[in-house]
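Work Package 3 committed the consortium to producing structural models of liganded targets before the mid-term review. Because experimental data for this complex are still outstanding, the team generated a predictive model from sequence and the ligand definition alone, so that downstream docking and mutagenesis planning could proceed in parallel. The input record is reproduced below exactly as it was submitted to the modelling pipeline, together with the SMILES string for zinc ion.
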Amino acid sequence: MRDLYEVLGCDRQASAADLKKAYYKLAKQYHPDHNPNDKDAEDKFKEASSAYQVLSDDDQRARYDRFGFDGLRGSPSAGGAGFSNVEDIFSAFGDLFGDFFGGRSSGGRRQARGADLRVDLGLAFAEAVWGTTKEVKVSRDITCGKCSGSGAAPGSKVESCGTCKGKGQVVHAQGFFMVQTTCPHCRGTGKVIREACDECRGKGTRAEQSTLQVSVPAGVDDGQTLRLAGKGETAPGGAAGHLYVVLHVQGDERFKRDNEDVLTEVGVSFVKAALGGEVEIFTLDENCTGSATIKLEPGTQPGDVLVRRGQGIPRVGESGRGDHVVQFKVDIPKKLSTRQEELLRELATELGEDVKEKRGLFGRKKG
Ligand SMILES: [Zn+2]
Ligand SMILES: [Zn+2]
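The resulting structure, written out as tokens with the ligand in place, is given here.
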């Protein structure tokens, strides 16, 4: 057992402010948030916290100064507790840590928020583009209606836990040190229910299978998550968790999505690509069943695009839409009628193209 002053790196004349400063420095250095999964740092954090707990108490400090560790023995009510559990340190020095580190995000014995839940939701392509309202089924713990979350039978009392006197923590001797742990009787709540609510058996919550309406905004994409604040598990005395809805959006071969833009590939014959004309395409309008006629410029090349500005996917939570990009694919006929072939050969002659001669049976050259 190291000398408590040595642990904090202070001499025996150190003022309360000096001790606080010394502890602050060590606590910051070995704080579990800064040293995740570091057993050595955790031990140092506990050691410093235990030392500071004794030396920050005038009475205990005086007894330690006179009698050493013997002076601390067997006086649990007076404190002098060593810490076996990091969370107990945050409980004991909650205010101090609030000062030091601006609070701690997790742990400690503050009001626990209910657990977050996750559900999956499948959407058709058009539903994701234009938004929809869907139902999801979730199984979650909600506040018990009968006892309003207290866990006590209506009319019965919730009493302060006698074992820990409502503190939620108990102190017992372990070697020289007094060790502070979560009260086993009330499991740290500090309260004891005399007669448990029969609806929830004292838990204060009950599992409920519920159907929730999820409003899906226009423009969501596959893999995105919607957060329904406060729709997760409830926690007695704490805020409810959140419900995360993970979206799975079906693809649509007519519209390839790239964030807020969509790409439509449209096949045009090589003749039309050369001469120009009009092409009918699918659009996102009318719940993705709309159509539009677009102009094809003479001399359109394979891969050329026509951008329909503002005709793409709506931006989630904003006004405006992405673009609808139409890309032309030029189709070359695989088979030609005799007449078509004649015309093409004529064209080839006109263009001065050296084309393969017409083949007869078995691929031999004709006559
Ligand atoms: Zn209940
Ligand atoms: Zn208790």
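Reviewers should note the following from the model. Residues 144, 146-147, 151, 197, 199-200, 204 surround zinc ion (ligand 1) (CB under 6 Å). These observations will guide the Year 2 experiments.
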